[in-house]
Amino acid sequence: MRLGLISDLHGNLPAFEAVLGELDAADIDQLVCLGDVAPGPQPRETVRRLRELDCPVVLGNWDTWLLEGVPPLGGPTGELLREQGAWQGEQLDDADRAYLAGLPRSVEVTLEDKTALCVHGSPRSTMEDIYATTPEAELAAMLDGSPPAFLVAGHTHVQLVRPHESTLFLNPGSVGLPFYKRLPNEPAEISPWAEYAILTVEDGRVSTELRRAPYDVSRLLELALESGMPHADFWADCWLTP
């Protein structure tokens, strides 16, 4: 079985379409989205494209924030992000909002005789990060004595494959906002490609693919500047262009 994995679309429809085009050619059996769908310059269009696919989708932290309000965020960009989040939430109609509100916090997928637990951040929280440097004891606590064969999560916008005891952890990165560099109290630098992953289990053999899809980033930035999103100039300046 070949499982396509996408996460953190962040209202970036051109990147999303580029990834879907590659996944169509990759002969996957199932697609799962790990959340944070709408926040970005094209929130309405991205949610509706995802709804067309009728695939399992888990709830992300920004999905909740667009529905309930963005909480206070620290750093020099915190207030800018809150204002963007307010605008992005206003772009969604009642059907879009109902769709996001109904998303589960986790999805389980069976690959042959193995289980993949799909979440946004960690099994405990949509806001919890898992990095290459996360201590083993902390990962064990997240799994709470029930380790799946595969733990799949997004949220960090950083691609990663990491073993933890009997569990293989996989982060497909971000379709719409992949981080090239992110330092405390500084604006993130965004990579000019879209990220996703494929997890394959075939006759007991396991393989993972971390993929990057090219697309027209210049066109995305034009769309953002034309969208009416607050602080679009600041957002566009974060991108590294090819």
Please characterize this protein's 3D structure:
- It is a single chain.
- This protein has helices spanning 13-25, 43-53, 61-68, 78-90, 94-101, 136-143, 217-226, 232-237, and strands at 2-6, 30-33, 107-111, 114-118, 150-152, 160-164, 167-171, 179-181, 189-190, 194-202, 205-213.
- With 242 residues, the protein is of the alpha/beta class.
- The strands form 3 sheets. Strands 3-4-5-7-6 form a 5-stranded mixed beta sheet, with helices on one face. The chain has a 4-stranded mixed beta sheet with strand order 2-1-10-11. A two-stranded antiparallel sheet has the order 8-9.
- A hairpin with a 2-residue loop joins strand 6 and strand 7.
- The longest helix is centred in the N-terminal third of the chain and has 13 residues, at 13-25.
- The mean pLDDT is 96.
Mean pLDDT figure = 96
CATH architecture: 4-Layer Sandwich
Top-tier CATH class: Alpha Beta
Q: How many strands appear in the DSSP assignment? A: 11
**Superfamily (CATH H level) name:** Metallo-dependent phosphatases
Low-confidence stretches: none
SSE series: EHEHHHHEEHEEEEEEEHH
| Helix coverage percent | 25-40%
Spatial order of strands in the largest sheet: 3-4-5-7-6
